[in-house]
Amino acid sequence: MNREHKPKLPRMDAVPVLRTDFSDPAGWDRLVQVLETPVTFDEGSEDPFAYERATSYVNPVGKEKYRGLLADMVLAAAPYTGHDLPYDHLYLADAETFASDDLPLLGIDIHLDEEDDEPWPREKPFRIPALHVAGVEINDSIANLFFRENHDFDWSGFEVYVAKPGTAVYEELRRMELDQEEDEEGEEED
User: Which residues form the DUF6924 domain (predicted)?
Assistant: First the structure.
């Protein structure tokens, strides 16, 4: 991708995870699977409602047009004023993401300050392991901890627990998901 070219960032309600490296198709598939994995922050929780999927908040985008996209290009495409996007940050899945077992996405702060607010500088891009994205997005969605406030977090000391296939929680979550899909199909037919 030409560094001089300003890419058009996707217009979507969910926070995009843009694939910028296409050298590892299996890595991309693994990343998408991790983002779809039900996670909780309560060790041993048997409550399916304590689990979240990152894909409830983010949308993986694997389009070729984002090949080679860099953080500075994203920042150029989302200036401090007037970028008019429905999200205030996004993630890049780049070569560094796929080179590590914990798939650290590059998070980029593109927030705009409200007119009446004191300006808050954007944080430099920072890495977030893929399994932690759900927690970041949950906290951001309820304004408990804004995305940019995660910039210096030590992820190594923060446990996240997954509902693995075959466990009772996983099976209950899967059943709930299937029920929801059936309900949505029934609504479409009406």
Answer: 15-151
Q: Can you give the length of the chain in residues?
A: 190
Instruction: Quickly list H helices, the chain.
Output: 25-36, 71-77, 95-98, 133-141, 168-189
Cα distance between residue 108 and residue 122, in whole Å: 9
Q: CA-to-CA distance for 99 and 77, rounded, in angstroms? A: 26
C-alpha distances in angstroms, 131 versus 3, 38, 67, 81, 155? 30, 9, 23, 32, 10
Q: How far apart are alpha carbons 1 and 166 in whole angstroms? A: 43
Q: Order across the sheet with 15-19: list the strands.
A: 58-61, 15-19, 89-93, 104-109, 126-129
Task: Locate 189 and state its tokens.
Answer: 């037919």
User: Residue 58 in 3-state DSSP?
Assistant: strand
Angle at 21 between CA 108 and CA 154, to 5 degrees: 40
Over residues 125-135, the pLDDT tens digits come to: 999 999 999 99
Q: Calculate the CA 11 to chain-centre distance.
A: 15
Residue 36, helix vs strand vs coil: helix
Predicted structure pTM score: 0.86
pLDDT at 4: 54
Encoding tokens for residue 113? 């300050």
